[in-house]
Specification:
Order of helices and strands: HHHHEEEEEEEEEEEEEEEH
Number of domains: 3
Largest sheet: 7 strands, antiparallel
Length: about 325
């Protein structure tokens, strides 16, 4: 029984490490997805059942801290299965002034987990401002904070909410954190007369300054961009832009806001720059169940530590001390 228990636990840990390292796949799987995969869930059940069977067969000799540890493990396993049933976790990149209601298509593909019986919750947030904290030379992101407008119905503002990347913010039954940082310029295509043909925001990984990213549209063009902000807000700056059609270089130079560059028979220019951040949202009752199980394991550990300290005190008690035999 103990051998099966140890094998199941070792298998779950090995599977988690392999999946997290991305050894057999192109991209490593998120921890949330691995913990709710069938191999980990089945292994957790085996650990719980073998532990209960072993404890029952030795119940007459089982000490309180072992019972407490067993209950903690069972509660953690129950929390994992609760998450698998009704948990929700999603990640989305939001640009300033962009809203997030809570539709499945709003989240990044491959970065959303929905339990078997769960539904995407209504979120009702609008990203108002991103505040990065950078190193002195501006090349490293130390922290990032975000300010949100909260709405629970269309055209009705109910307040504001702040979130950061250190501790999750609890909001309407959800845990919200932000992380990563970058710029979202709004481009526009214009014809020879200056009339706007198309315009949209594109979020780019162009931080720190000098980092190159690219975007593509429905045309055969690829736009390679570097951005050098000239103000603390990041709203103004210079773009190093290369425009490539298949293998032909159409433009390679620098432009500022509202300066255009030729793209065949039209021109492209950047109208404004907003900041973006990645928002992670988790609504999962299983988290609270797992937290209770973790607390029970901690209490069990405290009991073990207290017992060992008492034993060491007995061993090191000097002869002749009161109470020494």
């Amino acid at each position: 029984m103990r051998t099966l228990n140890l094998f199941s636990l070792s298998f779950a840990l090995f599977f988690f490490a392999i999946e997290k390292s991305g050894l057999w796949v192109t991209h490593a799987a998120p921890a949330y997805e691995i913990l709710h995969s069938y191999p980990v869930l089945v292994a957790s059940l085996i650990v719980a059942f073998t532990g209960m069977a072993s404890a029952w067969s030795n119940r007459a000799r089982l000490e309180p801290y072992r019972w407490l540890a067993l209950v903690g493990v069972v509660v953690i396993v129950a929390g994992l299965w609760t998450s698998w049933l009704v948990g929700f976790h999603g990640e989305v990149v939001l640009t300033e002034d962009q809203e997030l209601e809570g539709r499945i298509e709003e989240f990044q593909q491959g970065h959303v987990w929905l339990g078997k019986l769960a539904r995407v919750p209504f979120i009702g947030l609008k990203l108002s401002k991103v505040t990065p904290r950078l190193s002195r030379d501006g090349s490293k992101l130390l922290r990032v904070e975000a300010l949100f407008d909260v709405f629970r119905a269309e055209d009705r503002l109910e307040g504001k909410m702040e979130a950061g990347d250190v501790l999750p913010h609890y909001f309407q039954g959800m845990f919200i954190t932000v992380g990563s940082y970058g710029f979202s310029p709004r481009y526009s295509f214009r014809d020879g007369s200056g009339a706007e043909l198309d315009s949209s925001y594109v979020y780019l990984n162009v931080f720190p300054p000098g980092t190159e990213d690219y975007f593509r549209l429905l045309t055969p063009h690829t736009f390679y961009v570097r951005y050098y902000p000239s103000s603390a807000s990041g709203k103004d700056g210079r773009f190093d832009l290369r425009v490539v059609r298949n293998k032909d270089l159409l433009f390679n130079g620098s432009v500022h806001l509202h300066e255009s560059a030729p793209v065949d028979n039209v021109r492209i220019r950047f109208e404004e720059v907003h900041q973006w951040t990645k928002v992670s949202i988790t609504k999962d009752p299983g988290i609270f169940v797992i937290a209770v199980g973790g607390l029970l394991l901690c209490l069990s550990g405290i009991l073990v530590l207290t017992r060992q300290l008492r034993e060491y005190a007995q061993l090191w008690r000097l002869p002749g001390e009161p109470g020494n035999v």
